[in-house]
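Look over this entry.
=====
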Amino acid sequence: MKLKVVIFSLSVFGYTGFTAQNIQNNPGSNHGNRFEQLGTILPTPNMYRTASGAPGHGYWQNRADYNITAYLDEDKRNLKGSETVTYYNNSPDELDYIWLQLDENEHSNIKNAGYDTSSVLRPSTTDQQLKVTELPVKDNGYGVNLEKVTDAAGNPLKYTVNKTMMRIDLPKALKKGEKLIFKVDWNYNIGNRIKMGGRGGYENFPEDGNDLYTMAQWYPRMCVYSDFQGWQNHQFTGRGEFALVFGDFKVSINVPADHMVGGTGECKNYDQVLTPDQLSRYRKAENASEPVEIVTLDEAKKAEKNHSKQRKTWNFEAKDVRDFAWTSSRKFIWDGMRVTIPENNNKVMAMSFYPKESYGLYRKFSTKAVAHTIKTYSEFTIPYPYPVAQSVEAANGMEYPMICFNFGRTEKDGTYSEGTKNGMIGVIIHEVGHNFFPMIINSDERQWAWMDEGLNTFTEYLTEEKWDNTFPSKRGPAWTIVDYMKLPKDQLEPIMSNSENIVQYGPNAYSKPATGLNILRETIMGRELFDKAFKTYAKRWAFKHPEPADLFRTMEDASGEDLDWFWRGWFYGTDPVDIAIDKVTVATPNLETHPKVAEEIKYQVDKPLVNSFEDLSKIRNREDKNITFYVDKDKDVQDFYYRYDRGQEKVSTKEYTTKKEATLPLDARDKDRFKNMTAYQIDFVNKGGLVMPIILEFTFEDGSKLYDKSAAQIWRLNEQKVSKTYYFDKKLKSIQLDPMRETADIDTTNNFWSSAGSGTETSKFQLFKQKQEGGSVRGGANGKVNPMQAAGKS
C-alpha cells in the first residue's frame, strides 16, 4: 500500500532531538518494577486456595455452635452467663488444645493485652485523663471472671488465661471429623461505655435514671483455626476487631420485665414478652411497606418512669452466623417493616430500636435506611440471606450479624442539622452493610482491617449514591483521599499493614481501600467488568474465610484484567498519584515538501557473521572430543558460518535487491485535507510515583471538547516519562489532565496547558509517517481514536 507522507513544520525553534521515540527506546534506569507481577508476595496457591482466587477442592473450616443463657443484673450492672459450645474439627489436623477469646478483659487494668502507647505531658488535662499512677496496680474489677470450665459430663478442663485469650488443654487430641462439647460459666461487671470506651457496655441517662445496654463481645468466643494461619489468637487491644467461626446460636436472655430486647437472629417468644397490642403491631409490621411503631413513643416514655422488679426471658435463634450481640433497655421505641430481597425473594424484617432522644431522626429514616442497605448490597454482592436486619441508636457505631449500633440524636427540641442527618444515615448504611463484610464474607479483621472496613466503605459509597445522588459521601470518591496521600512519607503506611500497627487508621483502613476500589470500577476496569468480578468474590467467599490474595486473584480471574500493578502500588505502597503535563510541542504541515522517488536498495552477504571475540565456552566446546556438532552429523547442510569459521572455502557472495515503496507527492485533494492539520506532542512526567491512566480533556478554539484516555500500561516501558501525539484539523485552546479528578492526583496545578501561554515550555520534534488510511492515536474507550473523528469529522 502506498503511503502519503505529510511533512510537518515545527512551530518553535531550538529542537533538542528528544522525542516520544527517544523516551520509549532509551528509558535509562526508570523501572521501579511497578508492572511486575506480585509473584512471591502472594502466598503460593494450594489445594485450599487456588491461583484463581477461589476456594480449592480441599478447602475446610471449623465450626462452633452455641447454647447460651444470660442474666442481666441492672442494679449491679453485671452480666452472668453460661454457655455450651459444640466445636467441630473439620481440619486435617489433630488439635491438642483450643483457643477462646475473652474480649471483656480489654477493660481490665491487669488482664488486658498490655499494648502500651507513648504518652506526653499535656499543658492541661481533664479529670478523666488525670489518673494517679499506683504501683503495684490494683484490680479495677473489670474483665471476665471464669467460674467453671468443664466437659460435657461436668469434668473440669485445664485452662490457661493469657491476657485476652484462653487456651483449653484437651484430655485427648481432637481428631479430624470429631466434635468437642464443653461448658463455660462466667460473669463480668459491665462498663460505662461512654466513659471507658469500647464496643459493649452501658450508657446512663441521668435525666430519667435509665441505662441502655449494648452487649457485644460478651461471651467467651471460639478463635479461628485456619489453613493459612493456624490459631488466630492475636491479643485484643480494642482496635483490631475479630476473627470468628460460623455456627448456630440459641440464646436465652433474662432482663427486667419492662426492657425491650433486640438481638442477632429471630426472637422465638414474642407472644410471651410483648403485650397483646405490641404483638398485634408487630404482626402488622411484618407485612408493612412503611415502618410501623411496635413499641410507641408514649409507651417508651411511660416505661422510663417505672423500674420493674419483675423479669422476662427473651429467646433468640440464629443460624450460620459468626457472632451474637444484643441490646436491652426500657427506653426503646421500636419500629419495623418488611423488605423483600428480589434476588432470592427473601422476606426480611427491617427494624430499629432507639430512645426518645433519637425519635425525630430514627423514626423518619433508620428502618428505611436498613431496608435500602440490604437491598443495595444484595445487588452488588450476594442476596441478603438472613431473616432480620436491625439498627440500634446507641451513640456509637459497631456491627454484628443482623444487628448494629449507630448514632443519631436530635437536639432537645427535636431539631437536627443536615450534617447530623447525613452522618446518621451514613453510619447506618455502613454498619448494616457490615452484615456482608465481614459477617458473611468472613475476613480476618484482627489482621486485615481493610478487608472489612475498606470493602464495606466502598459498598457503602455505592449505597449512599443510590439513596441520594447528592449525598455528601466523605469516603469513596477519588478526590476525597488527596489530603491523606499528600502527607509526608513518614506519616504514611501501606494498606497491607496489620490493624494494630496503623497510625492513620481511618484513611488507611477505610478511605484508601474504598477509593482504590472505586478507581478500579470507574476508571481502570469499567463498571461491567468490575461489578462481575466483585460479585464473584462475594459469591466465592460467602460464609468462608477469605484472605487478601483471594480478593486480588478473583478480581483478575473474573475480569481478564492484569491488576498486579494496581495492587502493588495502591495496597502495598505509599506513593501518591501526581502526573504532570511537562511539555506540549506543536507542529503544522508543510505541504510543499515532497519525498524522493522510489529507489532500489541492494543487500548482500559477503561473509558469515561471527562474534568479534571468541568466548571461553566456544573454545572448550571445540576441544571437547565428546561433543559432536550438528553440522558434523549432516554433511549436506551448507552452513557457511561453520565452514567459514574453520578456514574452508569462502562462501560466494549473493546479492539481493528490493524496491522501497515510497510516497508520491500530495495531490490537491490531499493538500486540502491536511492543510488545517496540527500535531501536538504532550510530554507527561510521573512526579508522584504511582502510575495511573492518562485522562485528557481537549478544548478547541471553536468551543468543542474531546475526551481521551490511555490505560495505565502506557507507563510500562518508562515509569517516569511518556509522550502522546495527537493530530487535529482544528486548533487546541487548552488541555486538562484528569478533568474529573478521578485518579486522586495530589497536585492539579500541573495538570493544565493553554495555547495562550501556561508557563509550559514547548520544544521542537520530528514527526514521522502517519498512515492516511486507518491512521490512529491511542486513547478512547477502546484505545483507538481516528484522527478525523478526533477532530470532529466523520
User: Anything to note?
Assistant: Residues 61-116+137-190+220-245 form a domain with the Immunoglobulin-like fold (CATH 2.60.40).
